[in-house]
Amino acid sequence: MEFELSILGSSSAVPTSLRNTTAQVLKAFERFFLIDCGEGTQRQMRIYKIPFERINNIFISHLHGDHCYGLIALISSLGLKNRTSPLHIYAHRKLEKIINCQLDLLNVRLPYEIVFHEIDNTKTEVIYEDKRIYVTAFPLKHRDIPTSGFLFKEKEHLLNLKKDIVEALEIPIAWRPRIARGEDYIDSDGKVYENNILTHTRKHSKSFAFCSDTAFTEKFIDTIKDVDLLYHEATYANDNKDLAKKYYHSTAEQAAIIAKKAGAKKLIMGHFSTRYKKTKMFEDDARAIFKESYAVNDGDKFSF
Amino acid sequence: MEFELSILGSSSAVPTSLRNTTAQVLKAFERFFLIDCGEGTQRQMRIYKIPFERINNIFISHLHGDHCYGLIALISSLGLKNRTSPLHIYAHRKLEKIINCQLDLLNVRLPYEIVFHEIDNTKTEVIYEDKRIYVTAFPLKHRDIPTSGFLFKEKEHLLNLKKDIVEALEIPIAWRPRIARGEDYIDSDGKVYENNILTHTRKHSKSFAFCSDTAFTEKFIDTIKDVDLLYHEATYANDNKDLAKKYYHSTAEQAAIIAKKAGAKKLIMGHFSTRYKKTKMFEDDARAIFKESYAVNDGDKFSF
Lengths: 304, 304
Fold this sequence. Notes:
homodimer; 2 domains; seven-stranded mixed β-sheet
């Protein structure tokens, strides 16, 4: 279990007594990534036991309040906790101004630095990378609001060499890391040995994709291909297809079509319109297309 | 029961899993007044069944985040509900800039008007008045942060005339409303009848005072004299007197001294430091001075 996703909010636009607005925490190889930060996210982290002082990187999909109003309070609270390490925030460039105008006017002096990383919401590009994982932002389609989805993907594993063959061919030590990274081997006589006869099948690299908010669009399907866990917004069920279209949101059925076309292993849906008191309808609509579809609740955790 | 106070938050600085940051709603003669608005207040209103679209007047004691971070989300949600009637906010003048910079940068267009009323936090003055109630702001003492407490007071009732005396003296009709308002009666011969022999005792005007955040100060005691319900912050118990002094907050004992000196009928305390898991200690400290002292929890309601 290298990945664990915690759902901190699953309501769209406004909170309800049971659902907060959007925020999720992905724990991946002991790193805690916060994705979106609706109002009240810091309290949800306390309720669901996320060590919020361990969050170093925050990704904001777009600048609608239900995805970012909780940031200023979280930032302030981290200051009260005497944080000193930098906090990295990846978002549309306007977010920096929004945060800074509040910090300035409220005379909040933080004991740590906020490093703002501008996302170009028109591009598919890697915006974060470390030894074990990288994050790709990709454009979503949400009215005229610049919006990005995020793919969190484990880096490719090194290939395990087939010991018996490597020894039989007396492959020099210096060559072995190169073969593990995927190169073919060329011996001193110039003979080429294809990588796949020297190595075992590569271990699967885990991934999670976050797609919210968005109207139905297939444009990012190649980017999230074969994802293990796909979160796709489903603001409406099929009874309100017209509203989904009007407001640039998706239905559960549309989320399932994306999951199926992307070859996802599992689909989770959230960002439910407050008009729905129950979510069975979402699962019914989605499962008619893609069996492994689930409507989330606040506090749900998904490990893989 | 003309007054009902709902506690929406009772934690200081940051929320805990059990307590949100400061916000209270006073329902008085079917008006709903919001006092302070920590992050997540709109959700607390949903949880505790406050009809938040009926709030027309919001009073903000000071511009620390735990007393105002929830405003922008509440304002936005009222817009999503297609509110059209104006929303009045009483606060330090900087709040207008803080709200407007967010609305501007986030391109939020509200379908209603926000009317900002500047509080001069150095003065004791009436800042709101209608037919039944008026609100007086008075200075608190909270470091260099301009901070006001609020007294919500029912307007004085007209005096009931003693029918038999009024008739015996043949007091003219035109004089009677003047006497009901408290004037002495002077008959056509110039003889003066003192008001108190013509009228019954005036019916008590109910009141509620909100005092947070503040270090111990007796300066506002005359303003809140004989208050029915006093909310006074008690960030610390007696075990942390030194911290109360250092951070310009109060202890439970100090809150009780204020309640006693003001002749309050009941004291409720909140804004507890997160270091305290239980509040019995606050009640013990306070009751040694003032018996009717209570530590609040989120969701508590007080009717009077």
